[in-house]
Amino acid sequence: MLRVTQLSTTDTVGGAAVAAKRLHHALLEQGVASTFYVARRLTHDENVVEFKVAKHAPRQLNRYIYALAKRLNPRPYFPGGGLFTGAWTLLGHVPLRVMPAADIYHLHWIAGFVDFRSLPRLARRSPIVWTFHDMNAFTGGCHYDHHCGRFTEQCGMCPFLQSNDSRDATFRTIQRKSRVLQAIPRSRLVVVTPSEWLASEARRSSLFGKFVTRVIPYGIDLSVYKPVDRAVVRARLGFAPDDRVVLFVAENLVDGRKGFRETLETLSRITNFPRLRILTLGNPANSPQMAGLQCRHVGSVRDPLEIRDIYNAADVFIITSLQDNFPNTVVEALACGTPVVGFATGGIIDAVENGVCGLLSATGDIAGLTNCLLTILNDDARRNAMRPAARNRAEKHYGAARQAQAYRALYEEILNGDIDPDAKTSIASPHLP
To answer: pLDDT band for position 284 (50/70/90)?
Structure first.
């Protein structure tokens, strides 16, 4: 049986962890012996193995040691609110030394968990598949570069660190990462991205351009995220049949990349729309204040069935990310038959077939986004046609089984020695129309 160890900093916190955990379960359904290896386990899944610094020490002691190590190696945030992490961890190679053996090691979001310097040793044990959920692996520290583009060379003079030094921390990080990657044969590491955009960025980078890069989009359980009786869920959430409900996720209002300011500005332009209701999902501390709008903030919801009902209650889902990989929320909305309005950026372009299951405007174009939103809210016939189209797109491209099959095929291709290291432009992209 094919054995795969998935590595992720957590098993539930953050979009990358959610996507990795979904893949883990889908692989188990496909007969792959998948083990989920994490720094911090937050579920009771028996296939999730938590990292132990000391093998025989109590769990709480191990957690304390790991938390202390993270505290001594802090993660700075730049002024835009985005995440910025280095490539080194205080515990070094310990997580890899004690983790389960496997035929393939599959890395996900591992910031603060796996030390970059450990990767050559890991690649000697078994081939590596690394799914990039953001840009951090090939930058000097940022997880999204806000279109800076300096990762294509050597970073340095980092605008997020407000640095004028061409040999600043980001430059030194790129140099160290480069030395590590030079020790890994091209046949021993394959990069996967969920979106065409992120694949293109990885290939442009000074670090990963030499490696084969594939595109496999996220998959979700379509038996959970699906259309349900909208009248029932709307009534339960307190919405009238003729309300027009706009849903957005308010998980992180600090990171400017998420576009919360753009959401507010767009919604402020339609305050006179009849029976407009705003429904927000996310961190309770992030309950948005929007003058002139009737809002309901449901806070953090973890039950997938409740999340499904929230998507179904909405007439449209709005996402205003200015730069993004392949948001889980967009795929969830489509699977529930909810049209999507947003900016044409990153993986959102991949997921939303413009004009068919949603409407996209140029990134940062508030007027254009407002027109997209009003078009869907005003045109009942078009909105109702988009609902089955959205579901159809999810069924055709974003099922969990489809994703797992694509990964299993990639694992077997690697193990059979069929990966051509020189085919660095190779793309397996099952989500294209």
So the answer is: low
What tokens were used for 191?
Answer: 């990069």
Closest by CA position to 129, among listed 213, 195, 67: 213
pTM over 0.90: no
Residue 260 tokens read as 């919360």
Q: Is the pLDDT of residue 6 over 60?
A: yes
Tokens coding 100? 């389960």
Distance CA 334, CA 327 (A): 11
* Residue 50, SS3 per DSSP: strand
| pLDDT tens per residue, range 411-429 | 999 999 877 766 544 444 4
Tokens standing for residue 290: 């929007």
Sheet arrangement for strand 48-50? 48-50, 33-40, 3-10, 104-107, 128-131, 189-193, 213-215
Other CB atoms closer than 10 Å to residue 255's CB: what's the count? 19
Q: Where are the alpha helices (DSSP H) in 111-205?
A: 119-125, 169-182, 196-204
Contact 89, 66 (CB under 8 A): no
Residue type, 428: A
Torsion angle defined by CA atoms of residues 233, 237, 238 and 240, in that order, rounded to the nearest 10 degrees: -30
Give pLDDT, residue 432.
Answer: 40
- The rounded Cα 203 to chain-centroid distance in angstroms is 19
Distance CA 386, CA 245 (A): 15
Span 333-391, pLDDT tens digits: 999 999 999 999 999 999 999 999 999 999 999 999 999 999 999 999 999 999 999 99
Cα distance between residue 170 and residue 151, in whole Å:
9
